[in-house]
């Protein structure tokens, strides 16, 4: 590392001069910039517990040795130790994780995937006592679980306010990576409100704190010794730490934990829409200066959104007073909103802002607004569809893309072979002739939105009409 110094290297004593300057620089940095984690670890490590689980070998391991199968390979929840491949299966499988004491009367916070399908849960305390725990409740959507042990006067952790976290802030994790209990690692907050694939309910805290299998469910502390997150996932191509780790904000974790303690489950709000982000091209086509908000790609029939007369093409820019910069910001707000209560939305429709009241419903399944990501480059030759083909896909109209030509406007827009074009510039498409006529009548050089169904998911793509 190059260290700039006011010292001039012109005398024979330049080595001593440089050494003194470097020492001085290092001392100043240590005193003014580097935190001392020793006191924090001494004071707060007593609130961290190790968790050991046993699971029947026949139990379906949703979070097994390869992590959550719904996630891409490089996004994995921390793996548990299990029966090695190739050996004779044992009667039970074992897993490890971490947790944090939430209250002095024995409530413990951890990850849902740590205790998934566990037939026995053992909690090891700071004083080496091992106590059997009862599962109060687990919520797979947020990956939070609450345990209860029969003990009192426990050293409970202090919870901070995760909404006050800033990028660059120092944080520290304590847990049991690979079973190595009371391991402390430090780093900084790399990002906040990070959305991960198939995790639409959690705005994750991203850090560069070194965490590994066994850290799962352990606390993330700020410099005040307050818990600001529950470590949950890592980005890895190897199964180990690669510089990216993700924690559940403690505000969300506490909210979920209280619901689990009271009801044993978590009720979530529901709108009944599919949403996607906007890029600049899409923003231009909808008359927006900046690509912000959640673009509605589909509205489910008889849903709260349908009753509020929301429609595909509306852009939600505010929900219950909270601005929506990216589509990923909307699902957690909807999920945690008050059920059956009127909520104010601000949308952009026909290039103008509108205020709409909507009554949030109860999520009965996984149909909360999902984030549909726009795809990469693709191009265009279409064919008509039979009534049976449309019925099989659950649509009433549309034409199928048979071929995409590289470099053409459709390819640049991201259209793909076998995509179904449902509408062109908000006009429903029933056949090839309609699409050809509408394309011919559109002003050259303009950008129009296409509503496209792909693998039973629907989304808007913006296509620029070429200048002849």
Largest sheet: 7 strands, mixed
Distance between the termini: 56 Å
Q: Calculate Rg over CA atoms.
A: 27 Å
Helix content: 10-25%
Q: Which shape, going by the Cα principal axes? A: elongated
**Number of beta strands:** 29
Specify the number of helices. Answer: 9
Q: Provide the CATH top-level class of the largest domain.
A: Mainly Beta
Assembly state: single chain
* CATH-defined fold name of the largest domain: Thrombin, subunit H
Low-confidence parts = 1-32, 57-76, 78-91, 365-378
Percentage of residues in strands? 35-45%
- So, CATH architecture of the largest domain? Beta Barrel
Q: Would you tell me the structural class of the helices and strands?
A: alpha+beta
| Total separate domains | 3
């Amino acid at each position: 590392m190059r260290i700039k110094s006011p010292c001039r290297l012109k005398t024979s004593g330049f080595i001593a001069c440089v050494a003194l300057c470097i020492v001085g620089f290092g001392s100043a940095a240590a005193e003014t910039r580097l935190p001392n984690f020793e006191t924090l670890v001494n004071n707060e490590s007593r609130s961290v517990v190790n968790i050991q689980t046993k699971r029947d070998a026949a139990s379906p391991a949703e979070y097994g040795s390869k992590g959550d199968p719904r996630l891409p390979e490089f996004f994995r929840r921390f793996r548990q130790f299990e029966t090695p491949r190739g050996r004779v299966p044992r009667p039970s499988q074992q897993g490890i994780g971490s947790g944090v004491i939430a209250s002095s009367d024995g409530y413990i916070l951890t990850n849902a995937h740590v205790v998934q399908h566990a037939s026995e849960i053992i909690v090891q305390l700071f004083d080496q006592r091992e106590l059997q725990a009862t599962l109060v409740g687990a919520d797979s959507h947020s990956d939070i679980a609450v345990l209860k042990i029969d003990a009192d006067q426990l050293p409970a952790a202090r919870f901070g306010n995760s909404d006050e976290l800033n990028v660059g802030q120092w944080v520290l994790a304590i847990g049991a990576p690979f079973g190595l209990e009371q391991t402390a690692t430090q780093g900084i907050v790399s990002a906040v409100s990070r959305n991960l694939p198939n995790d639409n309910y959690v705005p994750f805290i991203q850090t560069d704190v070194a965490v590994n299998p066994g850290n799962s469910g352990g606390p993330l502390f700020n410099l005040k010794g307050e818990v600001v997150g529950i470590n949950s996932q890592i980005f890895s191509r190897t199964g180990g730490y690669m510089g990216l780790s993700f924690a559940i904000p403690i505000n969300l974790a506490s909210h979920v934990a209280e619901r689990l303690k009271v009801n044993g489950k978590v009720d979530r709000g529901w709108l009944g829409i599919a949403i996607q982000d906007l890029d600049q091209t899409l923003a231009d086509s909808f008359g927006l200066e900046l690509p912000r908000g959640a673009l509605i790609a589909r509205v489910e029939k008889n849903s709260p959104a349908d009753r509020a007369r929301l429609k595909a093409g509306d852009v939600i820019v505010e929900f219950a007073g909270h601005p929506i910069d990216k589509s990923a910001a909307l699902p957690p707000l909807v999920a945690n909103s008050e059920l059956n209560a009127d909520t104010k939305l601000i949308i952009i429709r026909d290039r103008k802002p509108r205020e709409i009241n909507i009554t949030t419903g109860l999520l009965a399944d996984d149909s909360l607004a999902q984030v549909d990501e726009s795809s990469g480059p693709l191009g265009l030759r279409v064919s008509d569809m039979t009534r049976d083909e449309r019925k099989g896909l659950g649509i009433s109209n549309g034409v199928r893309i048979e071929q995409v030509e590289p470099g053409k406007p459709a390819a640049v827009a991201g259209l793909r072979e076998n995509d179904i074009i449902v509408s062109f510039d908000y006009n429903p498409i029933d056949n090839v002739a309609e699409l050809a006529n509408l394309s011919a009548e559109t002003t050259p050089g303009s950008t129009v939105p296409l509503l496209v169904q792909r693998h039973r998911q629907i989304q808007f793509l913006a296509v620029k009409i070429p200048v002849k």
